Amino acid sequence: MSRPLRALIGPSILNSDLSKLYEESQKLLDNGADYLHLDVMDGHFVPNLTFGHPVVKCLRSKIKEAFFETHMMVSNPEQWIAPMADAGVDQYTFHIEPVPDIEKVCRKIKESGMKVGLALKPGTPLSDVEKYISIADMVLIMTVEPGFGGQKFMENQMPKVQWLREHYPSLNIEVDGGVGPSTIECCAKAGANMIVSGTAVIGAQDQAATIKLLRDTVQKSIQ
Ligand code: DX5
Ligand code: ZN
Asked: Mind listing the pLDDT tens digit of every residue in the chain (223 residues)?
């Protein structure tokens, strides 16, 4: 049985002041974030490094309730499943591009008690992910090349979102990269319901109003 789709806003803390990770995260939640999108980069799959499970575990020790999604931009996602589950992650979203046995990784994530997200770089066609959609909880369509916050939104990824929504009406579809007040309409119309927003939320004068605007725009499209 499929549940009704919800508009969910998950700010990315990548471009926040990481020396205050807890304070920045708590502030986002107090301002209405539905979940936290934690960008994990290994310097191999993407040309940038962020943080790993020890940092996520520390954050979890201070924030007990919030839904944590880790966006694993790593070459070997299988390696980090157990430590991330132990750190208290709720959803493990990994890039399918470097993975030889996607089904096995999905199974291990589920066995460890986390939800599964499948992420696609802009150049990756939907045909690469289609046969795994039934075993996933979410598909992430990247709207920038993964690696850095603050890049320009790629509108040419919207046909992928549209196609997914048409064929999978109750699937959670996430967009990530360059999403904010000026691009949310486009994402909402295409059918995305889980919205990652970094720079636009972190740098907003009024975080709560920006998060609400994003959520309201998506919610209107869903109805
Ligand atoms: C990019 C990351 C994104 C990014 C979002 O590789 O996956 O989550 O930080 O930040 P903005 O919204 O600034 O593009
Ligand atoms: Zn991300």
From this structure: 456 899 999 999 998 999 999 999 999 999 999 999 999 999 999 999 999 999 999 999 999 999 999 999 999 999 999 999 999 999 999 999 999 999 999 999 999 999 999 999 999 999 999 999 999 999 999 999 999 999 999 999 999 999 999 999 999 999 999 999 999 999 999 999 999 999 999 999 999 999 999 999 999 999 8
Its pTM stands at: 0.98
Give the number of the atom of ligand 1 that is nearest the alpha carbon of residue 146. 6
CATH class, range 8-222? alpha beta
CA of 172 to the centre of ligand 1 (A): 18
Q: With left for phi above 0 and alpha for psi between -120 and 50, is residue 21 left, alpha or beta? A: alpha
Angle, helices 21-30/207-222, rounded to nearest 10 degrees: 50
Residue 39 a catalytic site member: yes
d(CA 183, CA 217): 11
Residue located nearest, by CA, to atom 4 of ligand 1: 149
Handedness of CA 198, 87, 5, 71 (dihedral sign): positive
How far is it, in rounded angstroms, from Cα 173 to Cα 168?
Answer: 9
